[in-house]
Amino acid sequence: MEKGVLKADNGVNGLAWNVVGHTYVPKLLSEDAFVWHATIPAGTFVPPHIHPTQDEWIYMLDGELEIEFPDAHDKAGTGDTIRMPRGIAHGIFNRSGKTATCVFGVSPACKLFELFTELDGVTDPAELVRLSALRDVNFLPPPDAA
Q1: At 130, phi and psi to the nearest 5?
Q2: What DSSP letter does each residue of 71-82 carry, written as one string?
Q3: Which of 61, 47, 46, 56 is nearest to 110 (CA)?
Q4: Is the pLDDT of residue 143 over 80?
Q5: At what angle do helices 112-119 and 125-134 cross, to 10 degrees?
Q6: How far apart are CA 125 and CA 92, in angstroms?
Q7: DSSP-assigned letter for residue 114
Q8: Fewest CB within 10 A of the end CB: N or C in the chain?
């Protein structure tokens, strides 16, 4: 990780990605953690998936997201923190009708930075699933395929 201040309108190495319709701007990258700012438009989602080697969290800056775990569905709003432990399936949905902004983080960083670089602009769901599996993010099959 580099020392210093990363300005609000900038990302690590000047990067910003479009991943599943969300805008992700990397803010911090080290071996131990990866943190990014996310803008999540209404009606978008990240399908249920598992990080087998990473704990993940979201701090809500504005708006509302729904989080679905196998045994619980929760809503999070401004100021809330969503905790998604490694190995537990979770899906993230913006059904609020308004854009949500938040800060995501994972620990350890593993290969997620590389994955987002590869997924930037990918629109084919099968390719998203294939690339994600190569970087230790495992999407669950859709309910009708189970």
Answers
A1: -65, -50
A2: TEEEEEETT-EE
A3: 56
A4: no
A5: 160
A6: 16
A7: H
A8: C
The token duo for 26 is: 């990397």
pLDDT at 122 over 70: yes
CB 76 within 8 A of CB 65: yes
Tens digit of each residue's pLDDT (9 = 90 or more) over 52-94: 999 999 999 999 999 999 999 999 999 999 999 999 999 999 9
Q: Contact, 61 vs 25, CB < 8 A?
A: no
Ordered by where they begin, the domains of the chain are 14-135 (2.60.120.10)
18-33 pLDDT per residue, tens = 999 999 999 999 999 9
Nearest to 45 by CA among 94, 83, 90, 88: 94
The SS3 call for residue 11 is coil
From the centroid of its chain, how far is CA 113? 11
Looking at residue 12, its amino acid is V
Q: Rounded distance, CA 10 to CA 27, Å?
A: 8
Report whether 23 contacts 38 (CB < 8 A).
yes
| Nearest alpha carbon to residue 54 among 144, 142, 132, 146 | 132
